[in-house]
């Protein structure tokens, strides 16, 4: 994953240095942790997350057990690895929870341009192909004239059905109709793509809350753009407080962002990253495995 390249390079440098020394003193560990701290800040990890991370690692790493171990450099790297996994959300991917009675509603929320509509199409393709689900896609975006058509095109590409467009309906009315259609026609999952806004505003949150109360989603997935760095984390915090978010999808992991948002997300928002997007194509959607990502960061 491109977004972690710079951080990965910096951390590898630190731990290669430690490994070469053989014996380690407390001062060596402290010096290494100063470098880790700078590398994380440069990678755009939120300051409170960096502080907490460095404190935890330092506490564990300066113990005699570690310093006296056969390869202390490796022991410290292992501690950092475990702390990275924690920051990324804990071991193991957090799966989508689609165990409700069908049709299972999945609500897609996020700011305009975050990749919400594309991700809705990606998710539809994934559920159809890998999980053999019968998926209905519905656009509740009555703000942007082309939005409903865009989703209909993505549905065709993903090989799933999209809810027919009825002019003049409100988002809540479309949501009701989508769920009725889902029940009547035996769909397993109904993906509801809500309207975005350029920034967080009360009207947006109100609309999402109303839709949420009508469909009672099994998953409310917030789509954020990794390229926006700490703004993505702040957006997630606001959405989670206002409407409740069950999982985050971080898009543009193929871009040249610095990756810090992924490391800050869980601690700042409480919501786990469940999926990531790494391209414009419909198959560019991956599960988020913290232990694999940590492994890649540490090279
Ligand atoms: P929405 O306004 O949130 O619905 O955003 P769209 O789904 O329309 O996406 C905006 C642009 O971002 C489109 O050109 C997408 O192809 C592109 N996009 C979405 N996800 C990704 C991704 O993971 N990587 C890249 N490189 N582009 C993406």
Q: Classify the helix fraction into a percent range.
A: 40-55%
Spatial strand sequence of the major β-sheet: 3-2-4-1-5-6-7-8
Q: State the helix count.
A: 12
Which molecules other than protein and nucleic acid are bound?
Answer: guanosine-5'-diphosphate
The parts where pLDDT drops under 50 for at least 5 residues are none
Largest sheet: 8 strands, mixed
Helix-strand string: HHHHHEHEHEHEHEHEHEEH
Shape: elongated
Tell me the structural class. alpha/beta
Amount of beta strand: 5-15%
- Overall number of strands: 8
Q: What is the mean predicted local confidence, pLDDT? A: 93
The N- to C-terminal Cα distance equals 11 Å
Output the radius of gyration: 22 Å
Note the topology.
Elements: H1 5-21, H2 26-42, H3 47-61, H4 64-67, H5 72-87, E1 104-110, H6 116-129, E2 135-139, H7 147-158, E3 161-162, H8 171-184, E4 189-193, H9 202-215, E5 219-225, H10 230-243, E6 247-251, H11 260-269, E7 273-277, E8 285-287, H12 290-297
Parallel strand pairs: 1-4, 1-5, 2-3, 2-4, 5-6, 6-7
Antiparallel strand pairs: 7-8
Helix pairs in contact: 1-2, 1-5, 2-3, 3-5, 5-12, 6-7, 8-9, 10-11
Residues 110, 112-118, 196, 251-252, 254-255, 277-280, 284 line the site of guanosine-5'-diphosphate (GDP).
Provide an overview of this structure:
It comes from Acetobacter peroxydans. This protein starts with a helix and ends with a helix. It has 299 residues and is α/β, with parallel strands linked by helices. It has an eight-stranded mixed beta sheet, sandwiched between helices. It has twelve helices and eight strands. 47% of the residues are buried. The protein has helices at residues 5-21, 26-42, 47-61, 64-67, 72-87, 116-129, 147-158, 171-184, 202-215, 230-243, 260-269, 290-297; strands at 104-110, 135-139, 161-162, 189-193, 219-225, 247-251, 273-277, 285-287. The structure holds guanosine-5'-diphosphate. Guanosine-5'-diphosphate is lined by residues 110, 112-118, 196, 251-252, 254-255, 277-280, 284.
């Amino acid at each position: 994953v491109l977004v972690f390249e710079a951080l990965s390079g910096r951390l590898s440098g630190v731990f290669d240095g430690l490994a070469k020394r053989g014996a380690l003193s407390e001062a060596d560990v402290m010096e290494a942790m100063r470098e880790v701290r700078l590398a994380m800040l440069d990678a755009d990890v939120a300051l409170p997350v960096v502080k907490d991370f460095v404190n935890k690692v330092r506490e564990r790493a300066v113990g005699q057990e570690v310093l006296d171990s056969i390869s202390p450099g490796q022991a410290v790297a292992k501690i950092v690895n475990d702390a990275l996994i924690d920051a990324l959300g804990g071991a193991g991917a957090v799966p989508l929870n689609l165990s409700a009675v069908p049709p299972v509603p999945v609500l897609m929320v996020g700011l305009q341009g975050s990749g919400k509509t594309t991700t809705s199409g990606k998710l539809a393709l994934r559920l159809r192909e890998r999980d053999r689900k019968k998926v209905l896609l519905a656009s509740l975006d009555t703000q942007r004239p082309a939005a409903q058509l865009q989703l209909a095109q993505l549905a065709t590409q993903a090989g799933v059905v999209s809810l027919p467009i009825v002019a003049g309906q409100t988002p809540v009315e479309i949501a009701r109709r989508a769920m009725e259609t889902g029940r009547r026609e035996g769909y397993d999952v109904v993906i509801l793509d809500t309207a975005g806004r350029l920034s967080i505003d009360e009207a947006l949150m109100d609309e999402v809350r109303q839709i949420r109360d009508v469909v009672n989603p099994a998953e409310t997935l917030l789509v954020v753009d990794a390229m926006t760095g700490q703004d993505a984390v702040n957006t997630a915090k606001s959405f989670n407080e206002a409407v409740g978010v069950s999982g985050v999808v971080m898009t543009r992991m193929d871009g040249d962002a610095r990756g810090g948002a992924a490391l800050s997300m869980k601690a700042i928002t409480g919501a786990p990253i469940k999926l990531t997007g790494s391209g414009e194509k419909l198959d560019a959607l991956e599960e988020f495995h913290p232990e694999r990502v940590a492994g890649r960061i540490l090279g």
